[in-house]
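Researcher: Here's a chain I'd like modeled. Treat it as a single chain, no partners, no ligands.
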Amino acid sequence: MERCGKVSIKFSAPSFAVVVPMYNETLGAKKCVLAVLNSLKSIENNSLLIIVNDGSVDNTNEELLSLKNSGLHFRCLNHEINKGYGRALQTGIKTAIDEGYEYILFMDSDLTNDPSDISKFVQKMNEGVNVIKATRYSEGGGIDGVPFYRWIISWTGNKLAKVLFRLPISDCTNGFRAVKSSLLKGVSFSENDFSIIMEELYVIRQSAKSYANIPVRLTNRAENLKPSSFVYSPKVFIRYLKYPVKSFFELESN
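Model: Modeled as a single isolated chain. Structure tokens:
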């Protein structure tokens, strides 16, 4: 509560939705939902976990239904067929915006990012920061159990992306992030793989007024889970870097 003369102004904590896409995550679905919900318990802001089951053909849906039937409070949205990472995110975004949540926080279902870090994002939401990005590449952040060649490729790519975007973001490709919902309202993304993360920065860069970096430690995907669908290839680099390159030349031409 802040006081100014006789006027009292009560701080209203912004609401947020956590959007988590899942595809064939039978072994990890329960652990993910429980971990995220446990983290949200300690946060005063109004929040909702939204799981987007993207056409899983294993028992992911059954696992999620079992958790719902046990009385856990979260939303489960289902694609009848696999539509891809980008479409899953857009389904979650639309639901969060339609239900009036002020921020959308994105994270993956494999818990390579620790849900306890959500509280760090909330601190920045409470300050009104528009775009909040997890970063592996600042003091307090890092990577555990990830092969060196993957780290050096990612580090180099992010250094280049930061220079081209000219944004105060040290880990542009990190999918653990929170964005003010108003920046995403009405946006139709064209990418349907992980490069949607870069397209998102490109789309909102002119309307976003403030940014923050949240140091986190990324861990490797657990061995009992299915392998990540992400692969390093020239095609991936082109899809990722085309957005910072476009941004750079557009800024140069203005």
